[in-house]
Write a structure and sequence with these properties.
The complex is a heterodimer of chains A (about 500) and B (about 325).
Chain A: H1 2-12, H2 15-33, H3 39-51, H4 55-80, H5 89-100, H6 104-139, H7 142-158, H8 164-179, E1 181-182, E2 189-190, H9 204-222, H10 241-263, H11 269-283, H12 295-307, H13 309-312, H14 314-319, H15 325-336, H16 343-348, H17 350-379, H18 386-403, H19 409-426, H20 432-455, H21 459-466, H22 468-488
Antiparallel strand pairs in A: 1-2
Chain B: H1 2-21, E1 32-36, H2 43-54, H3 56-59, E2 63-67, H4 74-82, E3 89-94, H5 95-99, H6 101-104, H7 111-114, E4 115-125, E5 127-131, H8 139-148, E6 154-157, H9 165-175, E7 180-183, H10 187-195, E8 201-204, H11 206-214, E9 218-223, E10 247-255, H12 260-273, H13 277-285, E11 293-294, H14 295-299, H15 302-317
Parallel strand pairs in B: 1-2, 1-3, 6-7, 6-8
Antiparallel strand pairs in B: 3-10, 4-10, 4-11, 5-8, 5-9
Classes of the chains: A mainly alpha (about 500), B alpha/beta (about 325).
């Protein structure tokens, strides 16, 4: 295997590979930074370019777009409280507060470093452990996914915030919103009030932009000295080594969490980010600082969501199975090159597979440089005067909500959730549990329905004899919840 | 208030742009939008990326892909049905969206009255697959066991009324079998469930299962169509399942009111595409066939599909 890894390394050491990867990274970052434009869309649009490039150039190019895009999404999250992608939700919590304190550059730097660290570590882990991971991925069926999602919901519920009742209300509200649309098993319509537009459910990005960005806009407008002043007058200093070292424990913890979540099919970056964030908050001696501008919060979220990337590539590379839309586009890029991912590719063209994983590691390192050099330019956004910035942000919020699916109705969704966000903020309800409920609701219900169908009416027998792992996780959940709760509210 | 203003502004700008385009000298004189009623990364998306990247050479203008997923494909179809029938907005559809969905729920359009086929690009025949170590070695084995234990044998599919669900339902209806259908979110997760031993049977397209057959991870029991695709694996016709069963057609459609000359231009361009080496090479690499069918010929299939799918939906939802 070592020989194949080395051979793969030599395959990627090409000038054009690096040039295209750099273009992809920078382009992906720009697209990711624009709200409403998802990384996925950028990849789908750029896919045909890879048809006409060499495999070891075209695929790293698309990987660059992907990685750049994920980081790009955290830029507006930190600067103007507008998550550009779903993965940046948890980054918004502390990132924007840091910006308000005039520490936007520190926050962006921390996001970059922890992203690159989490991603690189998970890629190297994947590279070395690809065979066991491939085995492990197949062991997770709907019952286990259901148990893990249940555990996630419980963790969100017990760590929801100062006032547990308010957190629970928001979580339940979020879960209910996720029920709107067609149910994932039977396809029956629920809570759609007969409206065709609601049949597909509530769209994620307009909901996020509405909940996070609009209340902040209203807050700025509500200030008396609006006009010449800007959100923060100073760009602030860059991140220091000491600050990075202080967060290193958190970054490592989030990397492990993110990598594990990446192995479980169907969970993804958003769940990883929130779990990493929750774990960091729980372990911190200064829990009350989280959500008020704690660098560790940004580090925890960003390391976790990027650490998902390595393992999600495994089913694609070893079995040719795309687990999500991003890997489905990569599969398209592979096959158009005449490379069929799957067991045969892995055994016959191992070096190509390893070459692509190695290219992912190089992409991370290169992104460190590209990101570091472009952060000062992005950070300037917040020095724009409020009376210009507010209309600009509002425009991007509306345009972002619209462009996500080119659907004018999504602007209504944006407005509704903007109002919900404003009310919640006035009543001191946190919106994060709502978002988590919404994100976890659909996969949780699907996995539950799938498990029930699989059990075929013999639920207990099925659970105990065929899926003992599910039972173990479900039994452990209350204990874990009790422990977390005790630790969280010790003082 | 503000959002309303924004909407008005956006709509206004769009109308202004459209009215410029209306003064048509030679069609097409601006890019053509192809709406895909699915999300990114699916087989429709990939096939569309292939033909739209080659099409400019034949039609003289770029073709722009616009993904409009939602409501099992009905959202994208509805958008095209509502669009101006000027030949600048096309739909890249499938036979299920075209003829099946209206039987499931009230559709915001009428397929037969709102759409006309430009060309069928290709079709994907379904394969019935089981894990390599499955006790089923033939279609007959599977059928026997399903009949002996109705509702106990589980089959994974890509989601309700999707490209794997409909063929599974067709097979069950035509053979009077009952299987336990487990929905997954897309073909990838459905296949993964089969490999992980979570379900007994699944369905897949040759473009996605090729390497897994070679490595012995899965066995194919039957494939759709008249001719067998794999050696020693019977086709549906061999098993006595005649007709348009288990095939997903991918076709480009236009709003029905499209001027006849523009429809002719488009049909000629898609026909010319068949001689394009880059197009056929890319399709072949993706494991897709280039079984082109011209618009008028495909039109003849649609009433039959409509009738069959109507019965299918009735049998499943009764």
């Amino acid at each position: 295997m070592l020989e194949q890894i080395i051979e793969g390394l030599f395959l990627t050491l090409r000038v054009d590979t690096f040039a295209f990867m750099a273009i992809g990274l920078f382009g992906g970052m720009l697209v990711g930074a624009l709200p409403g434009f998802t990384t996925l869309m950028a990849m789908a649009i750029l896919l045909p370019i890879s048809f006409f490039l060499d495999p070891v150039v075209g695929i790293p190019f698309l990987l660059g777009v992907y990685k750049g895009g994920i980081f790009g999404g955290s830029i507006p999250a930190i600067l103007v409280s507008m998550p550009g992608t779903g993965a940046a939700v948890a980054t918004t919590a502390d990132g924007y507060q840091l910006t308000k304190k005039g520490k936007s550059r520190k926050a962006l730097d921390m996001a970059l470093f922890s992203s690159v660290f989490g991603d690189t570590a998970s890629d190297i882990f994947t590279l070395l452990m690809i065979v066991p991971i491939a085995y492990l991925v197949l062991q997770f069926g709907p019952p286990e996914i259901f148990a893990i999602l249940t555990m996630s919901v419980v963790i969100v519920a017990v760590t929801a915030g100062k006032n547990p009742l308010k957190g629970l209300i928001m979580l339940a509200f979020g879960l209910w919103i996720s029920f709107i649309g067609s149910d994932p098993i039977g396809g029956m319509e629920r809570f759609t009030f007969g409206l065709f537009e609601l049949r597909g459910g509530i769209p994620l990005l307009p909901l996020l932009i509405g909940l996070f960005a609009l209340p902040e806009i209203v807050k700025i407008v509500g200030r008396t000295n609006v006009g010449e002043a800007s959100v923060a007058t100073i760009l602030g200093e860059r991140l220091t080594l000491a600050e990075f070292k202080r967060c290193l424990r958190t970054i490592c913890r989030s990397t492990v969490i993110g990598t594990c979540i990446g192995i479980i099919p169907g969970l993804g970056q958003m769940v990883a980010a929130v779990m990493g964030y929750t774990a960091a908050k729980n372990a911190s001696p200064v829990k009350e600082n989280f959500g008020k501008g704690e660098l560790e919060g940004v580090a925890a979220a960003e390391a976790a969501n990027n650490a998902v990337n390595g393992p999600t590539m495994v089913p694609l590379l070893t079995l040719g199975i795309p687990g999500d839309n991003v890997t489905a586009i990569l599969l398209g890029a592979f096959v158009a090159q005449g490379l069929r991912p799957g067991p045969t590719l892995f055994s016959e063209q191992g070096p190509v597979v390893f070459g692509i994983l190695i290219a992912m590691v190089f992409a991370n390192l290169m992104f460190l440089v590209i990101g570091y050099l472009s952060i000062p330019a992005f950070a300037r956004i917040i020095t724009i005067r409020s009376n210009l910035l507010v209309p600009l942000v509002t425009m991007f919020a509306v345009a972002g909500a619209y462009v996500y699916r080119s659907n004018p109705n999504d602007i209504i969704v944006l407005a509704i959730f903007g109002v919900i966000g404003i009310i919640a903020s006035a009543a001191k309800f946190e919106v994060m549990p709502l978002v988590m409920g919404f994100i976890l609701g659909v996969p949780l219900e699907r996995a539950f329905g799938q498990s029930l169908s699989l059990a075929n009416g013999e639920i207990l027998q099925f659970a105990i004899f065929e899926r003992p792992a599910m039972v173990a996780i479900l039994v452990a959940t209350p204990f874990l919840a009790w422990m977390l709760r005790k630790k969280m509210y010790a003082d | 208030m503000f959002t309303k203003l924004m909407t008005t502004a956006v709509v206004g700008a769009a109308t202004a742009m459209l009215s410029f385009g209306a003064v048509a000298a030679g069609y097409p004189e601006k890019p053509i939008t192809v709406v895909i009623p699915f999300g990114p990364g699916g087989s429709h998306d990939l096939n569309a990326r292939v033909f739209t990247s080659v099409m400019p050479a034949h039609v003289g203008q770029p073709m722009v892909v616009q993904l409009t997923p939602g409501a099992s494909g009905q959202k994208g179809a509805a958008a095209v049905a509502k669009a101006k029938a000027d030949g600048y907005t096309l739909l890249f559809s499938s036979n299920y969206i075209d003829q099946l969905m209206q039987h499931v729920g009230k559709a915001p359009y009428n397929s037969m009255e709102d759409f006309v086929t430009v060309a069928r690009i290709n079709y994907a025949p379904i394969a019935v697959i089981v894990p390599g170590d499955s006790p089923y070695n033939s279609w007959a084995d599977l059928k026997k066991d399903v009949k002996a234990r109705p509702g106990k044998v589980s089959i994974s599919h890509s989601g309700n009324w999707g490209a794997l669900f409909v063929p599974a339902a067709q097979l069950m209806l035509l053979n009077d079998m009952k299987m336990n259908m487990i929905p997954f979110q897309g073909g990838g997760p459905a296949l993964q469930a089969l490999l992980g031993g979570i379900v007994d049977v699944s369905l897949g397209f040759p473009s996605t299962i090729g390497p897994l057959i070679l490595s012995g991870e899965i066995k194919v029991l039957a494939t759709a169509g008249k001719k067998p695709i794999y050696k020693d694996v019977p086709s549906f016709a061999d098993l006595g399942l005649e007709g348009d069963v288990g095939m997903m057609h991918r076709m480009v459609m236009a709003p029905k009111g499209i001027p006849a000359d523009r429809l002719a231009t488009l049909r000629a361009a898609f026909k010319a595409l068949q001689g394009d080496k880059t197009f056929t090479r890319l399709l072949k690499r993706m494991g897709e066939n280039a079984e082109y069918m011209d618009g008028p010929e495909y039109e003849k299939l649609r009433p039959g599909q409509n009738k069959f799918y109507g019965e299918l939906v009735k049998s499943l939802t009764k």
